[in-house]
Amino acid sequence: MHYFISEDVSRLNLDWIHYALSHSYWAEAIPKATVEKSIQHAMCFGVYTEAGEQIGFARVITDKATFAYLCDVIVAEQMQGQGIGKALMTHIFAHADLQGLRRFTLATRDAHGLYEQYGFTVVKDPSRLMEIVHRDLYVRQAREEI
Fold first, then answer.
1. 27, 63, 71, 91: most buried by Cβ count inside 10 Å?
2. Contact (CB, 8 A) for 119 and 89
């Protein structure tokens, strides 16, 4: 299959991205408005078929000088296993604005093997990292709206 990767946010299919993220383990029930806002404030990468159908997506939150956080990496389920995720990662890591960063992070439950190919490792000293996590935030908000 032939596909291409673009950073043109006008190509992004917000409905597809929202659907994919809202059915993911990390962003279940995320509101569409939140997805839209997250796209406006990040570097976004879309993967498309030759016909223009979106089949992949990733965001990088960065200051483009010292730090980046890779998130929301999604490949359409029916397209997985075809090297699209690897091509997307290669494209992201080649981007001029993401060179020379001191720290590049991500969080994953099940894709360690993919990300290790690009140099990611498990945090060696978690005592240095802190976080605030609101698990199931979007699910709880959706329930409250009913």
1. 27
2. no
| Phi-psi map region of 100: left, alpha, beta (phi>0 left; psi -120 to 50 alpha) | left
Domain spans of the chain?
A: 3-145
5-49 residue pLDDT tens: 999 999 999 999 999 999 999 999 999 999 999 999 999 999 999
Distances (CA, A) of 64 to 11, 55, 76, 90, 114: 22, 26, 28, 17, 23
Q: Under a CB-based contact definition with an 8 Å cutoff, are residues 139 and 28 in contact?
A: yes
**3-state class of 142 per DSSP?**
helix
Closest CA to 58 of 75, 76, 33: 75
Give the distance, in angstroms, between the CA of residue 84 and the centroid of all CA atoms in the same chain: 13
Superfamily designation of domain 3-145: Gcn5-related N-acetyltransferase (GNAT) (3.40.630.30)
